[in-house]
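pasting for ref. prot 1 ->
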Amino acid sequence: GQQESTLLWSYIKAAKLKYWLNRPSYPPVFREVKWLFDRFVSPSINANPSDVSEVQQAVLHTYILHEGSIYTHDSTHVGNSLILYYPGSLRSVEPTPGTIKYIFETEQGVCFAIRHYLPLHSHSDPFRHYPQFLAHLFSSALAEHLTIIMPEWVVSHFAW
């Protein structure tokens, strides 16, 4: 509803500003206060700046059906929001677990704004001895920043 639209709009505005501040051609006066901006806005916003700078209007969805699977944001149905995805669509790296916070549609198509689960450093992974069994332990803590991904990057749902 209105709150999700406001949050998404704020995220897009912050990503556009961050993109602008990281350009080599921005005015030198802003270099002096960039550290202040980085202190208040996550330096690891992981959106593709060329995509974000083009977004003028987005439609929020509570769920989508993609290639036979239903995906929802976590406030609608937690189980359908838990996904494994290839970061940056790179299939050469292991899939990363995340939870869908927003599903939105722009002129470029449907996207997910997700928070990924952090690695678990306090325990060794008991599944490391079984490389054929594709299971891993992750922390229950989520990254603080949102990452924009495409539904095509999703491998599957996962259970927790």
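and prot 2 ->
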Amino acid sequence: MSDNAPDIPPLGIQYEGRLIHEVSGGEGEWQPFHKIKLYTNAFIRQKGKVLLGYKKRGFGSGMRVIILYNGFGGKVEPGETTVQAAARELQEEAGVTAPLRRCGSLFFILEGSEAAWHIEMFTADEFAGTIAESDEMRPEWFSDGSDPALDLPPIPLANMWADDVFWMPMFLSNRLFVGRGDFTKGNVLQKWWFAEQVL
């Protein structure tokens, strides 16, 4: 079994159903891991736009390639489900609540980290409350490209995690996705594998 076979998901990817390989690449072997931490990330989409957070502090803000924008999320606390954690983080970081649904799963390894990250991804098409800036994030709307009449900047992929360019098209076309990205220090993507998940 080849470590680089595109139809074979790398270790760390958890899924049900079947996978349709989308894109893969990079150099070398997959980085080893011995521990996994569970995180979440949530995105609000409405009428051709996506709500992202400008990262003011926290993980990703001090890297050589600076991560300025992301969804809203963080670590799953003891006793929480992933959707409960995603809802809590969305409220803490953006000031809103939303009927979140799972849209994907990502698996990351950052060179030098003590553990790999398993990130459950969520989205919603509506929300309640008033969007508000927090100590960690400043929410901003971006165009998803589907409505040229919107006077908004495009999704700033150049200032997001380097792998986002691979899964974002699946997210924007409402396809479930899974993937893995191995990073060297400084948000330099070393190896990647992404697929559509069909339940």
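The chain has a mean pLDDT of 92.
The longest strand covers residues 36-46.
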